[in-house]
Amino acid sequence: MASLCLASLIGWATPYATVAAADVMGRIRDSQVLTLGYMDGFAPFSSGNEQAPQGYAVELCRAVAERLRQTPGFAGLQVRWRALPEQEVARSLSEGQVDLFCTPAVETLARRKTLDFSIPVFTSGLAAMVRRDAPATLLGPLNGRAGDSGPRWRATINAGLSKHSFAVLQGTVSSDWARQRIRQLGLQSTLQEVPTYQEGVRRVAAREVDAFLGDRMVLLAYQAGQAEREQLWVPDRLFDMHQVALAMARGDEDFRLLVDSALSQVLAGQRGEELYTRYLGPQSAQDRLLQGLYPLPD
């Protein structure tokens, strides 16, 4: 299981000072092979071996391959999957070893110096994992049902969040954020720092803490891999948010347009909703709103 936050993948350092424009379409046309990269162990977005990967983002990449086969000159296209360790993602894309990376990541200004990104495919951000049988005084505020219509963690929800225990990943933005909010609101809550996502999830499952704060995408991935996953819950509410997308080599606008066209067609239609439900569960009103913002019009 990947123990990382999608907002700060440590292996995504800029590999080169300058990067020549890629000719991804030309390379694929010549070889008739589309190489799709992904990170294993990141269910429900990408997981499994190279012969049969699966996940929400993997299915989106399959839709890109289908769209490419419909393009003149690509009728004989074959798809190859390549599982990548985190630290090899940027280099593999920039060097043309992989054409599209099918584990969503945050588009940052630093990454845009060497890579291009598709339209967003999901919204992640700072969220909480709790047990489904947690008290309503905790579940309500964490899921936005505290009667407050103002900014997150207003004083109106103090009563719900106070006197509960929270875990955060040590040395991260979520740790700083949680400490600041607890101090600002005067909550009588305890905060534990944990070294890994795995430990934070374990403490929630074992009832050692009431909630674990972390990146929603990572929390969903860990929930999917837990034997107690039916007892765990990641509410929709985001205390901070960022969109994630599919990365590719920089400079081939034709390939990027094709990727965005394929993704827009899927995300705007019934297939997109079916894929979301299959891998991520039924869409909430917030999910439907966010998903509707990603596709580009024809």
UniProtKB/TrEMBL annotation:
Signal listed as a keyword: yes
Keyword Nucleotidyltransferase among UniProt keywords: no
InterPro entries, per database record: Bact_solute-bind_prot3, Solute-binding_3/MltF_N
Keywords: Signal, Transport
Domain Solute-binding protein family 3/N-terminal, chain residue ranges per copy: 33-283
An individual GO BP term: amino acid transport
GO cellular component entries: extracellular region; outer membrane-bounded periplasmic space
Pfam families tied to this protein: SBP_bac_3
Family as reported in the entry's similarity comment: Belongs to the bacterial solute-binding protein 3 family.
Name listed for the protein in its UniProt record: ABC transporter substrate-binding protein
